[in-house]
Prior knowledge:
By secondary structure, this protein is an alpha/beta fold. The protein has helices spanning 16-30, 48-54, 81-86, 97-103, 107-119, 132-136, 140-152, 157-160, 181-199, 201-206, 220-224, 241-248, and strands at 5-9, 38-42, 61-64, 91-94, 123-128, 164-167, 209-212, 231-234. Helix 1 links the parallel strand 1 (5-9) and strand 2 (38-42).
Amino acid sequence: MRKNIVAGNWKMNKNLQEGQDLVKELQSAVFGKALKCEVIVCTPFIHLATVGGVIDKNKVKLGAQNCADKVSGAYTGEVSAEMVASTGAQYVILGHSERRAYYGETNAILNEKVKLALANNLTPIFCIGEVLAEREAGKQNAVVKKQIEEALFDLSADDFAKIVLAYEPVWAIGTGKTATSAQAQEIHAFIRQTVAAKYGKTVADSTSILYGGSCNAGNAKELFANPDVDGGLIGGAALKVDTFMPIVEAF
Length: 251
Ligand code: PEP
């Protein structure tokens, strides 16, 4: 059966010292607890190797927030999937709406990134989601379907089965507005049906679909109680153990 996951996306926050302190504190907080979900921290690239050296990967897994769409070579400033994997990271967030909006990442570029991540044994946490105008026009299902189809549906069933999806309505990211529990369940079920129509029920039922967008201690329990919500991708609330742990313990 599919995994429950709570993944923290630190975005461009925390210097190296602060990142180490946060992860040490998180590690102590999870120590000895029988958690019902996998806990992942997705740090800035520069922190990966150091944070990887500090964490017990049985307790807290490590992820990056991006990787290049090229294998290697003259791409100044880029970080390849192979480099990410060489730090000990096991996950990589791809297709976050901030990458799509501010750095021009298209579904075609993301398709390249996903394939390179998989080739380097990284698990993509692949983000999809609509903007407010699309939600208001009732187009959210069509938007997420197109994102999945264009970026992921040329993968083999075996490769698709390695992916984690994160539904993140863009209007809920960092805004304090959360999708209602019913809205989340409705679109998560639609996403699972879309996967089932392409890859079959077994793959769809084993795909973890996380919710992201102003998820916090107050709403995580209700969101995660839905049958098709398998955890959360957490931004702001992942920056402090006091706000992250109640989400981890919401399962
Ligand atoms: C995110 O950016 O992935 C996210 C969910 O952010 P926040 O929790 O701050 O809305």
